[in-house]
Structures are given as structure tokens and as C-alpha cells.
Design goal:
Layout lengths: L6 H28 L1 E4 L3 E4 L3 H7 L2 H31 L7 H9 L6 H12 L5 H7 L10 H29 L3 H9 L4 H29 L3 H6 L11 H11 L3 H25 L1
Antiparallel strand pairs: 1-2
């Protein structure tokens, strides 16, 4: 019998250590906090499911959860069709393809915080370029209006992340063999039929990845609304991530915030699984 070579395990051992240190250990700490009450940072009292019951019976939690779902649905409804449309309009051959890819990928290279600060400076009524331009015609971007505040956050997210959908769909389109297009041309297929029966089935896997990634990222949005609107007006742009941060850092309510974190994680895993099964 041929002996089993276990040396391959040692090759992935560093990755396992990193994953364990960055995810498993913090998750275990959060689970520990979620069932205990913390006093002065080092005194723990077992409270069982108290925090989960408190969170699930809180109206504020459901309000922030609903706003978070609404934001994710809004940006996905815009970004996914827009990304597919732009990917379809890009040329499949030519010397300018690297230029197109680099230009499209630029927003993805900018960190979340920088994106929020950049657009805050652009729309500012006094020293922002767009704000100053609008002021010349007696217009102003009023972030104290709920519709305007939501429009700003959605626009910035669309500007930042539509590129991801474009690049993924474009990579799937490039992988389609020319013979499919030649057969469709011989059959006299119209553009919509070509997309529906040839291109869409071939890019459905990368499209699924794009939708999952966009759902995960949009559902955990934090930096842009925090910088652009500070959660206002009122609490109309306070999403679950911001509410969690305020509870954990400012109120130092570790047990409550740990319970919210685990519920947050469960919702993300559940909806990611549903999206995967549906698609």
C-alpha cells in the first residue's frame, strides 16, 4: 500500500492559522459576549439568551434592518442591469480593451473611506466643485432631505461598485466561443434573443458571483453613509452596521452588540444561501 503523503497539509497550514486567528477566534469571543453581561471590561455575568430576546423585540433593530435591506435591493436593482448593459456595449477585440478595463476598475481601487470623503468634498455647497456649480443656478444639495440623502448614498455606491459587475460580466462574455455568435447570425437571431439564449446562460455563473458579492457588500455598508449623511436626517440613513458600531463603541454595550453581530451574520449567511439556490 502506498504511504500517504501529508506534506501538502503543511503548505496550507499558514493559511489555516491566519484564517483561524482572524475569524474563528474573534467569532468565539463574540459568542461568549453574546450570552454574558460585561461590567468594567473584565467582569462577566451569565445572562443566557437575554440579549437576543432584547434585540429581536426591539423596534429600532427592525427599522435599521428594513433600511439595510431597502438599500441593498435598491443598489442591486440599479447596478446589476447597468453592469450587464455596459459589459455588452464594450468591444470584445481591439487594442483598447486593456484601457477600458483599467478605466472601469479605477473606482474599485479606491477605499470606502476615501470614496465617502471625495464625494463629500465634491457635493459640499461651499468648497465642492459640484456644489459650487449648482449654487450658480441657485440650487443646493440638501442632505437634510431624506430623499436627497438616500439618493446621494445610492449614487455613490453605484459609482463605486458597478465596475465589479461590469468586469465580471465582461469576463464571462469574453469566454463565449465565436461559434455561438456565428450560429445565431446564421439563424437570424435578434439582439434580445442572442442575449437571452446565448449570452445570459453563459454568464449566469459570474453573474451569480457578482450578485452575491454586491449583496454582501451593500448589506454591510458603513463608511459612505457615515461620512456623507452621518445617518441623517434623523435616523433615515442609519443602517445596521452603523447602529451596531454605535452600540459597541459609544455605548460600550458589548453583550447587546455581540448578539446583534451574530444575528447580522446569520441573516447574511441565510440570504446568501437563498440567492445561491435561487440562481
Amino acid at each position: 500500500m502506498k504511504p500517504i503523503n501529508n506534506r501538502s497539509f503543511f503548505y496550507i497550514l499558514p493559511a489555516l492559522i491566519v484564517v483561524g486567528g482572524s475569524t474563528i477566534i474573534p467569532l468565539a469571543a463574540i459568542v461568549n459576549f453574546s450570552v454574558q453581561d460585561v461590567f468594567y471590561g473584565n467582569d462577566f455575568i451569565w445572562v443566557g439568551p437575554k440579549w437576543f430576546i432584547q434585540v429581536l423585540s426591539s423596534k429600532e433593530f427592525y427599522d435599521t434592518l428594513l433600511r439595510t435591506f431597502a438599500f441593498s435591493a435598491t443598489v442591486m436593482i440599479i447596478e446589476v442591469p447597468l453592469g450587464i448593459l455596459i459589459a455588452l456595449s464594450l468591444p470584445r477585440k481591439g487594442r483598447l480593451i486593456p484601457f477600458y478595463i483599467i478605466a472601469i476598475a479605477i473606482p474599485l481601487m479606491i477605499p470606502w473611506v476615501v470614496v465617502g470623503l471625495m464625494w463629500l468634498l465634491i457635493i459640499h455647497p461651499q468648497w465642492g466643485s459640484l456644489g459650487a456649480l449648482l449654487s450658480l443656478i441657485d440650487l443646493q444639495i440638501d442632505a437634510n432631505n431624506m430623499i436627497v440623502a438616500w439618493s446621494i448614498i445610492v449614487f455613490v455606491d453605484v459609482w463605486h461598485w458597478t465596475s465589479l459587475t461590469i468586469l465580471l460580466c465582461y469576463s464571462g462574455l469574453l469566454a463565449i466561443p465565436d461559434m455561438y455568435y456565428q450560429a445565431a447570425k446564421i439563424d437570424g437571431a435578434k439582439r434580445w434573443n442572442l442575449f437571452r439564449y446565448v449570452e445570459l446562460p453563459k454568464i449566469k455563473r459570474v453573474l451569480m458571483i457578482a450578485i452575491l458579492l454586491r449583496f454582501l457588500d451593500s448589506f454591510m455598508v458603513y463608511a459612505e453613509p457615515f461620512i456623507l449623511t452621518r445617518g441623517g436626517p434623523g435616523k433615515s440613513t442609519v443602517f445596521l452596521s452603523q447602529s451596531l458600531m454605535l452600540t459597541a463603541s459609544k455605548q460600550f454595550d458589548l453583550g447587546h452588540s455581540a448578539a446583534v453581530s451574530l444575528i447580522y451574520l446569520s441573516i447574511i449567511v441565510l440570504f446568501s444561501w437563498i440567492l445561491y439556490k435561487v440562481m
